């Protein structure tokens, strides 16, 4: 099992929890993050090469949209696995945790 970034926090008791995402989901998330990493490097290169500001801003918007897509996918998987499992175990505090996470995502 892999650590779910939404479930894993090395600074709290939550670090004991693991996600139950399948390998396909892990690969999809990792592939998306690899593409975003490439976009970020490209944006850095544009800035270093004095690219036109509007072009850089459009690339930044594209990278932000890609990150939002990863967040949405991970949130969906988190709710369908991690959250559902905890609710089935009687842990209703997971709802408060989820609400806080969603508030952070919507900032």
TrEMBL record:
Instruction: Please give the residue ranges the record annotates as the region Disordered.
Output: 1-22
Can you tell which superkingdom this protein's organism belongs to? Bacteria
GO MF annotation: an example: metal ion binding
Q: Which Pfam families match?
A: Trns_repr_metal
GO BP annotations of the record are: negative regulation of DNA-templated transcription
Q: What is this protein called?
A: CsoR family transcriptional regulator
- Gene source species: Desulfitobacterium hafniense (strain Y51)
